Structure formats: structure tokens, C-alpha cells
Amino acid sequence: MPAPARSAVESTVMSDNGTVALASSRRTSPSRVARREKIIGWLFVVPALLMYAVFVLLPLVLSVQYSFFRWDGIGPMTWMGLQNYLTVLEVPDLLGTIYNAFRLVLFFSFIPVTLGLVVASIIHRVATGRLGEIARTVLFLPQVIPLVAAGIIWGWLLALPGLINQMLRAAGLGVIARAWLGDFDWALPAVGLIGIWVLLGFCTVLLLTGMTKVDPALYESARIDGAGWLTEFLSITVPLLRQEIGVCLTVTVIAALAAFDIVYVSTAGGPGNSTAVPGIQIYILAFTEQRIGLASALAVLLMILVLVVILPIQRLSREETP
Amino acid sequence: MRVGRSELFAGRALLVVLMVITILPFISIFTTALHPSGTLPSGLEWPANPQWGNFVQAFKVANMTALLASSSFIVVAVVPVSLLISTMAAFAIGLLRIPGERVLLFLFVFGLTLPFGGIIVPLYYLERAMGIYNTRLAIVLPLIGLYMPFAVFWMRAHFVNMPAEISEAARVDGASTFDLFWRIHLPLARAPISSLGILMSVWTWNQFLIALVLVEDPTQRTMAGALGAFQGHYATDVPLLCAGTLLILLPTLVLFVLFQRQIIAALLQGSIKG
Lengths: 322, 274
Hints:
The complex is a heterodimer of chains A (322) and B (274). Chain A is mainly α. Helices cover 77% and strands 1% of the residues of chain A. Chain A has helices at residues 2-19, 21-66, 83-90, 92-126, 130-144, 147-157, 163-170, 187-213, 216-224, 229-240, 242-257, 261-266, 278-287, 292-318; strands at 69-70, 78-79. Chain A has a two-stranded antiparallel sheet. In chain A, α5 (130-144) crosses α8 (187-213). The two termini of chain A are 43 Å apart. Chain B has one domain (64-232, 251-273): MetI-like fold. Chain B contains 13 helices and no strands. In chain B, α2 packs across α12 and α7 (164-172) crosses α8 (177-188). The longest helix of chain B has 33 residues, at 64-96. The radius of gyration of chain B is 23 Å and the shape is globular.
């Protein structure tokens, strides 16, 4: 980019000098400086743009390209048109991964955000001092560990001899004890539970930060009027935290739709396909079944899906923010 | 404060219960890690004879020394370069307002919601063609690229809010664009740069998918990537798996306790800007 731009500048400067020497040199010198500045400015962007273009944009374009072909990764590529996309939409196991991703949204996004709002407003109301500090730190802890570690830890907790079943037995509920992650009906909610554990603290602390920015006088006057927790929560907290709620929803919805680490480690998509999400299916199609075209079609659909879901959330939370 | 006594008590009790639920998983894998290797203990049970040696064994089996070195190398290779080039780009886009800044910004912001899973397959074939597959560069280079949307967006937010007088005064004193960046604006951007540095270090350390797909040798991976391999080998030996997991978590946990304020602040600001 910089090389042709520079030569263009030099050629204009020279032709200017060639026609009217004195007058033009006085006139062009500021614009010449400005052009030099523009080129230097562009040079500042080049390294970042280059890394982004080569390792993100180029693969993105290749994903779209691969999605129109049948390819095993080694041999020649066969043009398929839109067939790979039709296959994703027709084969129940593939379409099912998108359905599972939306079921995960309930656990990764809806529950942590709702519960986070409740917990944050409790901390805000009853634990402003030392306890609030400690609660913030402790609840945030699962957010800093690798998701893989969360998956391994919960893989053990949800196992047959694990802590969850031990507690159920202690509570006299031994009948429902099972290997949660190996159960066709319960594996997905169990994976969802891991997501709740990881994301609840993040949502709580983020929403709590938003609450401390709300004018305390609002809460004071509500309390003088004798407003209970619920009134205060619904009439002050939720409406004023639109933007923070939007951020929580954005982060957690992406975490659900693009889930990979937790699922790969805890169930690898099983049992059967009961916890298979697009990320897992892309990995399996591409790297164990060598169906690169099909994997890419699913990848493109996943990227479109994330955009389609996130854009309205962004728009809603940005509008009419006080 | 007109919060009732009973409400105060109920609220605090609920909070303590939540904290216990958050901590309990860590305690469970800790007690499990102390049971004899190869046994299958209950979820929460203090062993009759704590096997502290499990940690030593897991340290050796997981090849922790090599892992720590590899993860540190990757972080050191990714974070400073990403910080420098994203700050430079954000400086040009947000402060110099170079022509095409809106298009450039849109281009970078476009990458913000991109799931890694969407580009991992072509990345694999691209890296094979480039001859960097299965080296640490296979993790380092794509991570730098993948961090650009967020990092440029984050740093631009800082530069856009810088008062123009600072740059104008420097220009009057004859500062070149490079001086303006290096001597004036880089030192002023220390706070957002360090937050961004913390964020990218945590993300890199915890990176899994890229390490799993692009590097076969676990000792060349990130911590999280290596943990995945460790789980594959020791899925049946629960105490050893728990000991290894705890060891791999330890550096993160120590750093979190030491820098919790900065880490929490950085992660929260990060999500709000993003």
C-alpha cells in the first residue's frame, strides 16, 4: 500500500514544479506536508492491518470459498454450489447443533443475566462493605480460569461418584442420581450448569458496577417511600441498567452460540449428538471426517447466526440510554 | 439506609451460600487430588492418608516446567507485539484521523463478534502452506491477528477522547508524527495499554481451540491447550487429573488474587467497550 502512494505524491509534486516553479512551490508545500502526513498515518495502521488481514480476513474468505466445494483436505476440490448449505439445513444431526446452541443460550445467557441482576441488587442493597468486596472477588473467580479447567472440574463433579450426586444422596434424593453428562436428556442442562457457574459471577460484577453508577438519591427516595426490594429492582435497577444488561447479553450469547472448550472437554458433543454444538461439529467434520466443505458451510452459518443475534441486542441496549 | 434487619440477614445468607457454591468445586478437586492415584473417591471426602505426592507426580507427568516455559513464551511473544501494533493503528485511526479511518474502523469492528470456530479450518490449511503448523508461531501469529479488532477498538476509544490541544501544542514545538506518538501519546496511554495487556495475557494463557488444532505437541501449547491433552491421557485416573488441573490453575489463581482489582476492572471495561 505505501509504495505506490508515495510515488503518486512525488509525481504530482514534480509536475507542479515543472509548470510554475516559484508560485506553486509556495502553494504546494502545505499540501505536500499534509500528504506526507497521510502516508505516515497509514504506515501506522499497516502492521495491525496486515496481521488482521492474513490471519483473520483471509481465513474468513477461504471459509466462504471452501463452503462451495467438496474437499477432503488433500485431493482436488469439487464445485458443489450451495449443496453444503442445503446439507446442513437438511441433515438433522447438523441442524440439531444449531438448535442445541440456542438451548445453551438459555443456560449461558438468560439464567446468568437474570440471576446476576438479582444477586447484584442484593449485594448493592445489603452488602456494601467488606462482604460485598469479598463476594465480588469470589464470584468472579470462575471467570479467570480456563474454560477447559472449568469443564474438567465439572466433569468430575457431575460424574457418578461426584459431588453433585453425593449431595443428592445426602438430601435423600439418591434416586435421581446419575452420570449427568452421560445422560441423553440431562447432558445439555448439565453443560449449561457449567456455563452458569462460569458466567454468573461475570454478569453479577458487571451489573453491580453499573448499579453503583446510578444516583444513590434515587434509591434513597425510593426507600423513604418504603419501596421494597422488588419495587426498587423493577422500577429503578432494570431500566437504568439497559446498557450493562445489553453487554452481559452480548458476551454470554456469543459464549453460548460459539461454545467449544467446555463442551469439548466435558462431553465432546455426546452422548450421541445430544450436546453437539456448531463449534464441536465443525471440529469433527473438518479434522476427523475430513469433510472440509461441509465444515466450512456450518462455520459460515455460525458466523452469520452470531451476527444476526447480536446486532438487535446491541441496537436495543444502545437506544434511549439515559 | 432503610433496609430491614430480616432482609439484611436473608440477603447476606444468600450471598454466602452463593460464594460457597462458587468455591465448592475447587475444594472438591482439591480433596480428590489427595486420594491415592488410581482410586475413585467420593466428591467431597478428606482422605485418610493425604497423598501430597500426587502433585509432584502430576508436575512430572504433565511436564509442567516445559508447559510453563511454553505458555510464558507465547504470552511474551503475543502481548507486547499486539499492544504496539494495535496502539499504532488506533493512534492513526482515532487521533490522526487519516483518510479512510471510518472504513478501517468498520473493518476492525467487524471482527469483534467473530467466533474462532468460524475460521479455524482455513487457518489450519493456511498454516500448513506457510510451514508454521505445529510450531509456537502457529499459535502466536493468529492470536495477534485475532486480537486486533478488540485491541484497536479499545485503544481508539482512548485516543478519540484525547484533547486536540495536546497534539497541537506538540506540533507547534515541531514534533513529527513519530515524536507525537512515541514521546507524547504513548506515555499518556499507559493506563488503557496496561489493562489491555492484562486482558490479552489472560486470554492467551487460557486459549484452547487454536492450541488444540494448530499444535500437536502439548509441550508447545498454551496452559489450557496442554490441559486438554492431559485430560485425554489421564481421564481414568481422577486424583491425578485433579492434581494436574490444580497445578495448571495455580499460576492463574495466584495472579488473580494478587491483581484482582486490575483484572476485574480490565475484564469489565473490556466487555463494555466491546
